[in-house]
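Whether sequence alone determines local backbone shape is best considered at the level of individual chains. In the encoding step, the backbone of a single protein was reduced to a row of integers, each denoting a local shape. For completeness, the protein is quoted in full, as a sequence line and a line of structure tokens.
***
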Amino acid sequence: MNIKRKQLKIEDVLFNTFNAAFMLVLAIVTLYPFINTIAVSFNDGLDTIRGGIYLWPRIFSLQNYKAVFFSGTVYNAFFVSIARTVLSTVLNLFLTTMLSYTLSRKEYVLRKPITIICVLTMYFNAGLIPNYFLIKGLGLLNNFWVYVIPTLISAFNMVVIRTYICSIPESLIESARIDGAGDFRIFLKVIFPLCKPCLATIALFVAVGSWNAWFDTFIYCSSKQELSTLQYELMKLLSSTSNANANPAMAAGVGANSQASSSLVTPLSIRAAITIVAAMPIIVVYPFLQKYFIVGLNVGSVKE
């Protein structure tokens, strides 16, 4: 028995050592690109061209971030991006969950045909030109709601949420019906709260997709500056810096002295600053949603 116990202890030590070393290497590989991007974003633009920047900026500078926020349009675009992200996420979650609950009910005779129609939209798309004429026919060109209305329902999210709803014990719904609750009240008081873990994950996907979107702005709202989003403005900024090694028009705080040459930004440095600016809001929101990813709230709600 003592020999077996020693063998088990040795195996445990070896496993824990290997596991810790593997996770440490994985953490370094995962975090290094992000830390390196932060270091490059805070480094002087011209010095960045030399390379050799790893975990810490060699010549600390805020010129890259000044160049990003140099234009006043960035601030308005920031609020537009926040508004479209919040509205798209909230409405998509509520309406998609409502549709998912309807299609999960066995007594609904049209649930299979409607489900098939929704799933088909995941595989077949009319294309960009027909979609443009559809948006134009709906009067959504140069309209803020072009960011929200096309994203109200997601077929993929519907399938995920419907599968999750089907895992909720039917006895919860039956007990609510016995108490006199209707379908809409059951949806609001029973289904929606129990779907929080699933909805938190879906919310992160929808929010990230909406926050990072810029192509719809380019197609539908490029002629209206007040509807420009942050990602679109950053894309234009990055495109303008890519035309040359340095763009004097984008230099922040450039004076008439010899320091002007050191305050220019380069495509590599401005790209790093843009990446950090674009990713930071999602990084701030993610910790508040992470706790819902592990366990569902319906665990242990019914004892049978």
Residues 244-262, 295-304 have pLDDT under 50 and may be disordered. The chain is about 65% helix and 0% strand. The domain at 65-299 is CATH 1.10.3720.10 (MetI-like fold).
